[in-house]
Amino acid sequence: MSAQAARKKDMELVLDRPQSLKDVPWHFCPGCHHGVIHRLVAEQIDNFGVREKCVAAASVGCSVFLYDYLDIDVLESPHGRALAVATGIKRALPDRFVFTYQGDGDLAAIGTAESIHAANRGENITVIFVNNAVYGMTGGQMAPTTLEGQVTTTSPYGRQADGMGLPIRMAEVMATLEGAAFVTRVAVDSIKNLKKARAAMKRAFEYQIKGWGFSFVEVLASCPTNWKMTPEAANARVGGEMAAYFPLGTYKDKHAPKAD
Amino acid sequence: MAKRVMVKGNEAVAMGAIAAGCRFYFGYPITPQNEIPEYMSAELPKLGGTFIQAESEVASINMVLGAAATGARVMTSSSSPGISLKQEGMSYLCGSEIPAVIVNMSRSGPGLGGIHPSQGDYFQATRGGGHGDYRTLVLAPSTAQENYDLTMLAFDLADKYRNPVMVLGDALLGQIKEPVELKPYRKKPPAKPWALTGCAGRPSQLLKSLYLADGDLTVHNWNLFKKYQKMRQEARHELYRADDAEVILVAFGSVARILRTSVDILRDKGKKVGLLRPVTVYPFPDEAVRAAAQAAGRLMVLELNTGQMVEDVRLAVEGKAPVDFYGCPPGTIPTPEDLAREVEKMWRKGGGR
Amino acid sequence: MYFDTIIAGFGGQGVLFMGNLMAYAAMEAGRQVTFMPVYGVEMRGGTANCTVVISDRQVGSPIVHEPQAAVVMNNPSAEKFGPRVKKNGLLLVNSSLVEEQYVKARTKRILRVPSLQLAQEIGNPRLANMILLGALVELSGVVGVADMVSVLPSALDPRYHKMIPANQAALERGASFAQDNRGAV
Fold first, then answer.
1. ipTM value
2. Which of A144, A197, C61, C138 could be a cystine partner for C178, CB 3.0 to 4.6 Å?
3. CATH topology assigned to domain A24-253
């Protein structure tokens, strides 16, 4: 319900669509977390008033349609290259707010080199990394973050450590790099976790705006369609099985207030 | 006359780029073009520009994509194996219609090949090179001065057509040292209302190459095609002693300048021979080649490969005149005497394949 | 006017600098000029060489098979480039290092320059290359020794500018040696 409609009905408006989110229906599958994560990003764009200063690098995967929903300038990147593309944008326009929105295949497989080196250079860029443990857009193939034993269309007998390796914990990897300033992992499966995710987004945006350097938010998310689960079961898996392997929490916060 | 300086061919490219207002360079080291990134790394910071030595050629072409999308004049350079890696990004530049300049100081292949001069990348350069139905303008200098001049021109053409432009040299043109007249750049780069700069005071906009809606991609490809047709007007070539020639040699880049001397050698022996040098290899100067074939009655193509541009020459001539070919695969650089001898051999044999 | 030369020797003998300096001087004299270094595999094989072409018209080929003049500074270079010098061309041999059995040529105009001894005479044995360059310039007459001296500041890295007087002395010593022996070539 829009604000106008709410006022007409003389009701108190408690939550509205962020201004930087376009008023269009989502195309995402039922139970997919992309919509929620898009909203969290849009909230912070509004919160910091940077909509007109934003240039985002969209990636390849279900995340590519970022530009259908966010009312900001967007450049579409080749698969895996979003952080190289974002580096180019940010270096040309250092006073703009530049972020990438990437899935696990994009950031942690084909784009590993670009991701690690952008972080290592300490690019003043914000990364929203959506980890749903599967290739969504291409139809449910194994991702670098697919959990052990998880069945996908290219791991039909389940992911095996032997020969396929175990899932990569990107937040932990990124935190080892000197250039990464803020690294955190959140989930969007519960109100409690959503609140933490919102705070993490805010902190990540703050890092860039204050010029503190590379900020990285890994978001554990569901993909009910490719997990072959109901939205409820998929949601439960995020906070359960996924969070067990990918521990939530902040791995690096270079400008954290010092405890006395 | 503007100041003349003695510089390496690679440095002339970098100087031309800076003169044309390029302030962003992204690259990855590879012989024999390293003087370009080295020069840029020293000079761009002084001008408030940005030099990044990227983690790979793939990353560097994508940094180009990002910076060029903001409307800046941006360049990358590499040599053959590295250019192969950049092809993905070049396809995206074409698909998203983002102008940029890519320099290929080509070396020999296939694979790791060697660092010798080679023209083995002609097909890759002139046929798009990456995936999809696209073209890039390709300028082929043959002197250090042209490295400077054509790099400047490359930026203008890139902006004019919103398309990547390649400068195709080779190891010889990169390593050679010659006086270069530092002609000042006087043009005003065009406005770029399509650039992504943040949506202050205008609706948000997008640069992309993904078109999934019914029919959209067809329209997009036809629009690109129309642009490539329009680019044909940029065809450029140079003639040398061709007026009364009975045979006209066709060659580009480094081998063309060696042949200039071969033409002199043959002329001294009374052989009526001239030279046509395509300055753009895409668009290919079809009409000039056709006219040369008509006027002389016979063409001979010489390349530092086993036969690539000869296909374009034969397409242009449409079978109306014999077209001979002599190829020098990489490893040794032919001397003007070598090439003069080969021309005479073909001449004696009589026309055609 | 047209002149071409190949200068060859071991990497480290200053071969490329010799060619560079000559090219600079030719440019300052208003000529067209091309300097082509041979690098890479061949250089690692022991020899470095460069070709300098000077003309009053646009230079075509930067590659020369049979040069009008050559300077050979070591045995492999003498063997490789000596025979390629044109029949009436000029061959300058670094006789301090090149053994006589390697000196083979079609031309009779061969000058053996004891570059190391001459460089020692002027107190700087490291400038043997400048001795040979002075002799080449003197005998070819394409650019003057004074032209070479005047471009030293732009051709030499500022770190070596204190060496300019020594380089000048070496160039002049090479030129005077060539003058004294002009009759032989």
1. 0.95
2. C138
3. Rossmann fold (3.40.50)
